[in-house]
Amino acid sequence: MKRFLFLLTITFLLVSCKSVPTVESGPQVPGDFTIAFGSCNKHTLRNRLWDDVLAARPDVWIWGGDIVYADTPDTARIAAMYTAQKEVPGYSSILKEIPVIGTWDDHDYGLNDGGVEFESKKGSQQVFLDFLGVGDDDTRRAREGVYASHDYPQPEGKVKVLVLDTRYFRTALTPSVEKGRRYQPGTYGEGTILGEAQWEWLKEELNNSDADFNVIVSSIQVLSAQHGFETWGNFPHEVDRLGKVIANSGARGVIILSGDRHISEFSRIEREDLDYPLVDFTSSGLTHVYTAYSGEPNPYRVGEVVSERSFGLLRFDLEGKRVHFQIVGDEGKVLGELTQQY
């Protein structure tokens, strides 16, 4: 009997330890507010990261795009995929424990690499907002585009999250003439990513922000521009405009979050008109990644590219004006990290 009880106790301890994953890390700044985010998620594939997201205890989960892979103008089919995603056991736990916000990218928008030309974008917008649980009286129900602002006041300070829509208004991309690259930068000054209405909204939000940190969510990368796929760099004048809007606003602690690429990395640039570096934290993907990745140029890269399934984590030290960035994999393994003072 004693042997049976001993074995039962050992079994219980082993099971208990396995069911409560922890996020490992190196030296870490205190966290007054925590963001977790990710992109590139197929609801038909197993996502091994949801328990790790829960273990990190974020204050908000942010979708960075490609929540489902619909690639169809049939909005009923897109809605059905969103419903299936909400029923995924790990994600259903997220919905019960953590507020969820976010944006879309091309595959959940409905058209691979799609933009302004997509015929079903109005209907797709409504089922996307349904998935996020956006109320009927929300301004996004009546206007074009899914961009939105979210404020998170804390006793120690405030974090503002500005979610962009890089699909609804984006004009045509320029096909690349170079083998192995899909797109190349277009003519400077021609075309747009955000459209004028969204640009004016972003400018106003940053100009009037009293937040200690302003987090801009873009479904595609902003700083990394030489890989030949979708990036803000395909519209170089839009990159310049974004930098000027940020600098002229005087907004504090602006950070960019991005996805899409099926790899994760940190990019950082020093600008003369900003008194802090501008970081673009790319986190992608959640269920599938670029396993054949062998390298690509990015002059702004800090650290190494991660081509394992992962999500992004940001811990804000609001009093110390620091952010600890982490790329987190299965079982809480930290695959990359960066601490930035602001």
Automatic annotation (TrEMBL):
InterPro entries: Metallo-depent_PP-like, PhoD-like_MPP, PhoD-like_sf. Residues 89-272 form the PhoD-like phosphatase metallophosphatase domain. Transmembrane segments: none annotated. Gene3D superfamilies: PhoD-like phosphatase (3.60.21.70). This is Alkaline phosphatase family protein. It comes from Muriicola jejuensis. The lineage of its organism: Bacteria, Pseudomonadati, Bacteroidota, Flavobacteriia, Flavobacteriales.
